[in-house]
Design a protein that fits this description.
Layout (H helix, E strand, L loop, with lengths): L10 E10 L3 E4 L16 E5 L2 E11 L2 E6 L9 E6 L1 H25 L3 E6 L4 E5 L6 H15 L5 E7 H4 L6 H5 L7 E7 L3 E4 L14 E8 L5 E7 L1
Antiparallel strand pairs: 1-2, 1-6, 2-5, 3-4, 3-6, 4-5, 7-8, 8-13, 9-10, 10-11, 12-13
The chain binds zinc ion.
Length: 232
């Protein structure tokens, strides 16, 4: 999972470890992010000699990352070259970092908690358990977020023992959602602003996000408000 360390890797070499049903390919190392944690899977190409196999879906099954390709032909032991659809991935990285910042500002500022979150290629969806909620308040948080996106605030990721992670204020809700038998968690930190346990891919500076725009906000009940925003 090379993306856990370096989210900016666009290409890598790999060896095919196994192929199931001619189209589910496991590699010895990969840059393709598998669907999970509210972030969609990466797409791109696996190239062997002059043959191109399009990666149409990536999932994680029993700890292994499986790349679904659009045609048969790859075999165990093949040496291949992987290329990401970088435009899609980079947009998802910007959205993911934007989502962490926006949620952090809103949760700290209002006491609301995130009850659901999904990134899509063109927008981000959030659910908050937020009773007093109107467009004006949301606009204020979008403006606050955009102010921070104009600054070169560093975003970094590293591992922490679970015990230490649980002591970080505001991180507990996230950590509880993880299986209890993981001794070490990956933390994504927006310096001076937010820390979350997270396995996703992020940009290195808030400035890379650019700006966000609120698309719409709707009430899904007394304690569930849904907010959509996108990268402008
Ligand atoms: Zn995240």
């Amino acid at each position: 999972m090379l993306f856990l360390d370096d989210s900016y890797l666009k290409e890598c070499d790999a060896v095919v470890v196994s192929v199931k049903d001619q189209k589910y390919v496991v590699l010895d190392q990969t840059i393709f992010y598998p669907k999970g944690g509210g972030q969609p899977w990466d797409t791109g190409k696996i190239i062997k000699d002059n043959e191109t196999y399009n990666v149409v879906y990536v999932g994680k099954f029993s700890g292994e990352i499986s790349h679904e390709v659009d045609r048969a032909g790859l075999k165990e032991g093949d040496r291949v070259h992987c290329v990401l659809d970088w435009e899609r991935r980079y947009k998802l990285m910007r959205s993911h970092t934007a989502a962490h910042l926006f949620a952090s500002l809103l949760c700290v500022g209002t006491g609301a908690l995130v009850t659901g979150n999904q990134l899509e290629e063109d927008y981000v969806r959030f659910d908050f358990n937020f009773e007093n909620f109107d467009r004006e308040i949301l606009d204020q948080y979008v403006a606050k977020a955009n102010e921070l996106f104009s600054k070169d605030i560093h975003v970094k990721w590293y591992e922490l023992p679970k015990e230490e992670t649980m002591k970080i204020p505001g991180i507990v809700k996230m950590a509880e959602a993880l299986p209890p038998d993981i001794p070490v968690l990956r933390i994504v930190e927006i310096e001076g602003v937010d820390r979350q346990a997270d396995g996703g891919t992020h940009v290195h500076s808030l400035r890379e996000v650019g700006r966000i725009e609120l698309i719409k906000a709707e009430s899904k009940g007394k304690n569930n408000k849904r907010v959509y925003f996108k990268i402008a």
